[in-house]
Fold each of these.
Amino acid sequence: MLPSGNGALASTFRALRHRNFRLWFFGQLTSLVGTWMQTIAQNWLVYQLTGSARDLGLVNFVGAIPLVPLTLYAGAIVDRFEKRKVIFWCQAAMMALAFLLAALCWTETVRFWHVLLLAFLLGAVQALDTPARQVIVVELVGKEDLSNAIALNSGAFHAARVLGPAAAGVLIAVSGVAGAFFINGASFLAVLFGLFLMDVALIRRTGGGHESAKDLLGGVRYLRKERLPRAVVVLISLSALFAMPYHVLIPIYAREIFGRGADGYGVLMSATGVGAVLGSLYSASHGVGARKGAAITAGSLTFPFLLLAFAFCRSYPAAILLLVGVGFAFVLQNAPANSLLQELVPDHLRGRVMAIYVSLFLGLLRVGSLLLGGLAAMTSAPTALAVLAAAGLLVGLWVRFRYPELSRTA
């Protein structure tokens, strides 16, 4: 329940007043722990199977392939149908894929092409699931608590980023990767039960109806016309291409630069999660809600700058501290950007615009993963990370001067 009183704590967690959002929040938190366990285990599995930085990037890239043809249709589906049901079936499909990968690893029959195929199928499901999960939040809490709810969602995502990698590192060291994939599959049950228990009467249905949702290009036209929403989409998309894929190289940093095993890899990934949780709590406060543009601008410059420092770091304790800062700055950029975009977009277009936003984010993130992995294979992990982090910093500076109104937006 929401803490009583009108203090800072109650304000920070105010979206939890809504019963449906509480079910969503805690179900997501449980499931995301499993998702992060799978992410860590999958990267470690690929590195064990191939030992290649290029293949680490390739697995992340393959998941982007379904996004391009499915983006416009996914947005129209999200605007047209009940989002709770769309998410339910998407989550059930992802649960089945996780159990299949667990079975392949448990029977020791897993091959690299299996991982590629399952990554492709997961990307196809996520093309529909992710925009639906973004848009359902406003239906659970209304616009008055939207910024707070998105920040708390980000907090859940990154709290799982603390717990999941640490648990995965220990589990992989003790029993191998199969257990991590199985636990991820089981964790989807928390989301499914949460969706089932929601009070449908309390959901604030948004969307343009069946006729409006047939306009597949409505979101594209809106972003071409409206400068401020376009600035948000451009900034986050280019950041996803250059700065955000850094996690692909963390297994290489853990083993080859810091001389650590799976447990050390888990600690490094958890460090970014700690920083991101702190950033999410900060973003959930009234302070960031009143000055989203300034927060987005600050995060877009600090995030790649800290990555650039991490690229040249050779001290394991210092690397942990830098990654805490990276996580904080990442959320400072992304949580206010998400809420600002949803507040700007009309209800009847929200699904289609957020589908474009999410697809560009996920697609370019995976393209960036492939680019980073290939560059690291040709040069070295630190060189590749430094180049892309510098590019991300230049993007932040370009957007700051190309769209000055963004930094002034409340």
Amino acid sequence: MVNSERILNEFLELVQVDSVSGKERGVADLLKRKLSEIGLEVSEDNAGREVGSDTGNIIGKLPGKSGGPVLMLSAHMDTVEPGSGIQPLIDGELVRSSGDTVLGADDKAGIAAILEVLRLVGEQNIEHGGLEVVFTIWEEGGLFGSKNLDYSQLSATAGFVLDSDGPPGTIVTRAPWQDHIGATVTGRSAHAGINPEQGINAIMVASQAIAGMKVGRIDEETTSNIGIISGGKATNIVPDSVTIQGEARSLVHAKLTAQTSHMCETLQKTAGKFGAKAKIMVDRQYDGFNLDERALPVRLALSAAKNLGLTARLKNTGGGSDANIYNSKGIPAVVLGIGMSKVHTTEEFISLADLSGNARYLLEIVRATRTGDILP
């Protein structure tokens, strides 16, 4: 049923349109035209203005012909760097980049699957309760598009975000909460060669604090990291200020609270020990979600996998996605594996089979909304 040649050509077209985070205008305009030609009502929200992108989120609506649930199909338009001038290469049964950039299967393979399904729904006159398509901006590095999406335009009761590794049949039902932890440690400057004892070395204080933290894999559900340290002016000056930035994540909210508190308390206690001060700011990046098999999107995804003879795999993830935001906004959503591999590297690739398989699986999810086709 899936037009494999069409979806491949569309994927190749999409990845060659530059759309690094914050600069999605070109691909957004292309997608608005494509959605309109398929027959969707298309709009663009004001998220770009809020976050500094040159475009907003693209929303498309296709009214339903049955009384089934309204589904949201979502993927993000942006890519990471190096993502300009992508030249895709077909290498046997795989599509790769030329080696100087990412490929952009993350997440244009998801976009290509959604477009193919929308065309097939029309061509095959497939009944559904309504489809709402959301192509977000600036997902990479902050989920800024979904955080600023105009949710007043949506009525979906189940969402599917095509943005995970793993083959079709992979269903991400659980994802973490994440806190960003930023701190400025303030000490006292002095000449490093003449009177260092009169100074309080902020970098040393921060280093001692970090050394006293639990960092890395805390347990099977929790991680933490210190990723950025900056400070100091010269080697002959005892540094009076340093900033550090880190994060904590957990699939269990209470564990995240404990880990974040541990990191902040360690900073404060260490600063106090050396006579320094620590100003700490904690920012919740997103809330986690945990959907069981009774949730509508999970039931639909499992039903579709069964109908196609796919091996369904429910999994957790340690990363965030637009699905975290959708769930927090009251739209139950899972993330589907789309076969992308080695993402965020110049070795990124996807198989021709998965490009077609993604559309086939998503189409069966739409079909499963028919009465009696959803697993209880």
Amino acid sequence: MTGLTNRWAVLALIFLIGVALPMQFQAVPALAPFLVTQAGLSYTDIGVLTGLFMFPGIFLAAPGGLLSARIGDKSALMIGLSIMLVGAVLFAATDSYAVMFASRLLGGSGAVLITILLPKVVTDWFVGREIATALATVASSFGLGVGLAMAVLPALADLSSWPTAIIANTAVTVLAMIILLVFFQPPETVHGGAKIRPALWSLNRAELVLSMLAGIGRVLFSTGYVVFMSFTPPLLMAQGMNVTEAGLLTSLAAVVSIVSVPLGGVFSDRTGKPNHFIVIGAVGTAITCVLVPYIAPALLWILLFGLLRGGCTGGIMALPSQVLRPESRSAGFAVASAVYFIGMAAFPAIAGYLLDATANTAAPLWFAGLLWILIPVLLATFKFFQRKWRLNP
């Protein structure tokens, strides 16, 4: 069977896998109204279960990076997708909070390998080429997956039940596994050359610090997006919408992001000024988070959120490629992912707590705005150390 030999075809497969993961991650907040009313959960529980999906990565990212370096990207991705699928099925089969808790931990354990490998595989295929465009395209898959979950799952649960919606949500995961198994090959197999087998620890001090900073950048824009998408529907419902209307309206941010995020990467590559797009996009997105609760129509700010966030995604995602050597990529992306998982586990839970503690549906969106406004600070710190250590492989 002929494998994928074109980097854009590989990018399409990685994009599909990138959609599958956030659809699993976002299933809990998307179905929050049903889980609150039918399973007796609180919004703090929803935030905990949402963040819990990322919690295993705090401990498994570094081992996962080493494992993927040893068994290969394809095998590691298959293992990750399989474990994530089992976690989703287990969640759908129970109404026990303890089992839900365990199933999210299990599914998140599989998501660790996927999260590490998606940017690493894209970097392998696109480094020195359209790197910001490719990484922005993959990053837009996260937004699309979140948006699809928010738009489709409440409607499916309304028509049937929330467990049925969870099971239907696994279809994209299964499709991605089939295509990966049949068609994917690593670039050295397609283009020739020796396979790089990293040492157990291949990072120097500069690469370690900058990988951690890159991970913080990814945390800020990812959780800023997740908190906005997860907690805008409760705000809209408090303003009089029903659950399906609120989910569909919020999902329009993801629809716009499908175009804005790749375009942000294209403009970053073409102009050679990704930092400008990062700063303008982050500041503008923060402003939309703060204004959406107060100035009608909400549709305007939701659309602007989806448009403006596109400017900073590709540039932030490309930061590791600016400082990591080929032999240090697996370890570097593992470190960045470990930092990313810490924030992704903590920040949605904080947002849920803010809503429960204040009974103010605007509070989580203020928190989202704070996350976005911190991105330019992170970028300035990264660039300072990159220049100090003259790191530019």
Amino acid sequence: MRMPSTPVMALILAAAVPLTLPTANAAEVQMTVQNPVVELSTSESVPAAPDTAHVNAGVQTRAPTATEAMRLNAEQMEQVISRLIALGVPRNRIQTSGLNLNAQYQYGGENQPPRFLGYDVTNSVTVKLREMGKIGEVLDALAAAGANNLNGPSFSVEFDGPLKE
């Protein structure tokens, strides 16, 4: 097997040098090569303690009419949001992430029409927490306030500037 020429080898080795975070859009290099080509990909990760946690909290309600289901859901969701604010979570860190209204039916056996059960409303918010020591307290408070759909926490590093240096 014939090795690539020196300029091609230099280009391949230059591509293997790790980049520092954040990675910019990589330049695309076009070249015509008749010899075997080695393609390399690199990535970096830096272990760090998270400074942000996201929790998704929601309320699901059912009522005979769509209007009633929406009203009940709004009341219960207001309790959840009020509880978060009482715990010191700023309003701008509580964001609606979904609202769904669906008719619900129970399907029986053959030759039986579906039976209407009511309307389900699911409403959820995403909460950004910056005090890592309060996550358990917030989750407990959400459940106590009526949140019956909880997801998270998911952790991230929002202030990552020093890690990228």
